[in-house]
Amino acid sequence: MAQAEIGLIGLGTMGAALALNIAEKGFPIAVWNRTAAVTQKFHDTAGDLASRVIPTETLEQLVAQITPPRAIILMVPAGEAVDAQLEALKPLLDADDLVIDAGNADFHDTNRRDAAELPFRFLGMGVSGGEEGARHGPAIMGGGDAADWDRVSHIMNAIAAKAEDGEPCAARMGDAGAGHFVKMVHNGIEYADMQMIAEVYGLMRDGDGMDAGAISDVFSRWNEGVLSSYLIEISAKVTAAADPHTGKAMPDVILDRAGQKGTGRWTAIEAQHLAAPIPVIEAAVMARNVSARLDERHAGQDRFGAAPQPCNIDPALLEQALIAGKIFCYAQGFTMISAASERFGWTLDLPEIAKVWRAGCIIRSSMLNDMAEALAEDPNRNLIMAPFFADLIEKGAPALREVVSKAIAAGHAMPALAQGLMWFDMMRTARGTANMIQAQRDFFGAHGFERLDDVENSHGPWAMNAG
Ligand code: 6PG
């Protein structure tokens, strides 16, 4: 007897949390996991929500338990597991059933799956917020046909985080892989935000000799101001936490080698394909890669001596620098989204994206409210030109310059913040240096160039001067 409104496959951490969220919002849900014991345990521990959870032992049972036309969420590892699951569902589903891939899929895969002749409907959906978000309110970025999204949007709106104005942080971003694309850029920004926070943490720790508790106090203060955000909030918490084994501050017992599952790297690679400048995000990906080369870094320190030297910088100045860096990073992310919108014909709605990121997701912050407003005023204007952000930059950019200059002089690596500053300086230089590149290209390859004056565009007199 079909009785579930929706189904879910994959009861890992995220899948289990999402299933409980769906059940809690009043939707009966049928669940299935490859290992039957996991499904049973999930049901056994669902507490009051167990009455709305239907555990199933086979895919056939799962399908039979969902009211047609069915909707099934896939929460399995991105990549081959998704393709395998879609294959397994092919003989079981009807043409108007809908499968929703809610994992961190590569949007190219989602485009491919969308274009494939699947014998059922298909949506790709980015879900952000980690386990806590999935359980109590994630940000949801859908991609696929509007009619398919509309069929499940009441469930997505119910389970999504709500912004301050009560609006659910769930929306259809566009066709096919658009949802997973926006989630990928979200993760690129996540990498950059985290890296910039790590850079100012490093300045306080190694430049100023502050202990983790003092750094935590600074982050807590910042969380009351313009920088108020989930990532600053958790940075205050992790620096305040003590290790139960040694009593030391938690950050002081954690190896400085960052992991990554690849979404930040995808963002950097895709930005290159789109010719979209996102140097802050690229620097953050690079920094994770360098962090992984622990042995080489140790050898480097042994051979050349440790780089960071004392460098006292007022945390108030660091705060302003971080505000500027953060605006630059988001401006770059939104520019990349615009470029993708044009390239893939997606008509991505920038203010809507900023709105979806206001709550539930890892990069949620008070600044996203202002970004949503600024983009709504004019989605085609670079975020740095919006009056609210231009005013913040007027104060933040000089601070960023001072911080980066002092930090570099004292040997502190600041890749993401420095790249933000480099980009900003290029973005306000009307007469740059690419005329030199054009001359060189024309010299060795006769590529031609545009001229500043009225003389017809042509080639340089290189042959005359070559000798
Ligand atoms: C989110 C996160 C989530 C996860 C990343 C982490 O929005 O909820 O982005 O998707 O934390 O996959 O990625 P890395 O392992 O690459 O840091």
Write the layout of secondary structure elements.
Elements: E1 6-9, H1 13-24, E2 29-32, H2 36-44, E3 53-55, H3 59-65, E4 71-74, H4 80-89, E5 98-101, H5 107-115, E6 121-128, H6 130-136, E7 139-143, H7 146-159, E8 170-174, H8 178-207, H9 212-222, H10 230-240, H11 263-274, H12 279-292, H13 294-304, H14 315-344, H15 350-356, H16 366-377, H17 387-409, H18 415-427, H19 434-445, H20 462-465
Parallel strand pairs: 1-2, 1-4, 2-3, 4-5, 5-6, 7-8
Antiparallel strand pairs: 6-7
Bound molecules: 6-phosphogluconic acid (6PG).
6-phosphogluconic acid is lined by residues 104, 128-130, 187, 190, 259-261, 263-264, 361-362.
Characterize the structure shown:
The protein has 467 residues and is α/β, with parallel strands linked by helices. The chain folds into three domains: 6-176, Rossmann fold, CATH 3.40.50.720; 184-427, N-(1-d-carboxylethyl)-l-norvaline Dehydrogenase, domain 2 (Orthogonal Bundle), CATH 1.10.1040; 435-465, Up-down Bundle (Single alpha-helices involved in coiled-coils or other helix-helix interfaces), CATH 1.20.5. Helix content is 55%, strand content 8%. The chain contains 20 helices and eight strands. It has helices at 13-24, 36-44, 59-65, 80-89, 107-115, 130-136, 146-159, 178-207, 212-222, 230-240, 263-274, 279-292, 294-304, 315-344, 350-356, 366-377, 387-409, 415-427, 434-445, 462-465, and strands at 6-9, 29-32, 53-55, 71-74, 98-101, 121-128, 139-143, 170-174. The chain has an eight-stranded mixed beta sheet with strand order 3-2-1-4-5-6-7-8, with helices on both faces. Helix 7 (146-159) links the parallel strand 7 and strand 8. The protein starts with 5 loop residues before the first strand and ends with a helix. The mean pLDDT is 97. The structure holds 6-phosphogluconic acid. 6-phosphogluconic acid binds at residues 104, 128-130, 187, 190, 259-261, 263-264, 361-362. 6-phosphogluconic acid (6PG) is lined by residues 104, 128-130, 187, 190, 259-261, 263-264, 361-362.
